[in-house]
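stage 2 :: seqdesign
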């Protein structure tokens, strides 16, 4: 039996960061939102946690970061947000600015995949 797809639904906002995407003279307002983690991902061992990530202003849908507990789901969400921000910069040829400084200010997180 196939597992249902992981929900992309946004939850209540846990944290957000207001950014600008700058391409030449063009400046676009982008808001990064990370939702409250919820335990709703069906697995063979029960239910894992999902923490949605959304960049508003880019025409993208929320996407889930998943973990075995809420802390791991939030950690994965922060990791995924940085990866997505860097992908947007590459795809658009622009760069993010935060608090009038170049860069998105998202932490570099090293994931340890072993429990």
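stage 2 :: out
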């Amino acid at each position: 039996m196939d597992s249902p797809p992981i929900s992309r639904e946004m939850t209540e906002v846990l944290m957000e960061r207001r950014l600008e995407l700058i391409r030449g003279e063009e400046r676009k307002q982008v808001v990064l939102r990370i939702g409250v983690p919820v335990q709703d991902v069906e697995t063979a061992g029960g239910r894992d946690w999902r923490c949605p990530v959304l960049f508003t202003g880019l025409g993208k849908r929320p996407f889930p970061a998943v973990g075995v507990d809420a802390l791991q789901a939030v950690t994965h969400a922060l990791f995924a947000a940085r990866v997505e921000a860097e992908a947007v910069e590459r795809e658009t040829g622009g760069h993010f600015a935060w608090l009038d400084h170049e860069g998105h200010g998202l932490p570099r997180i090293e994931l340890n995949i072993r429990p």
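stage 3 :: structure notes
- The chain has a mean pLDDT of 93.
- Strands lie at 13-23, 26-35, 38-43, 46-56, 63-67, 95-98, 101-102.
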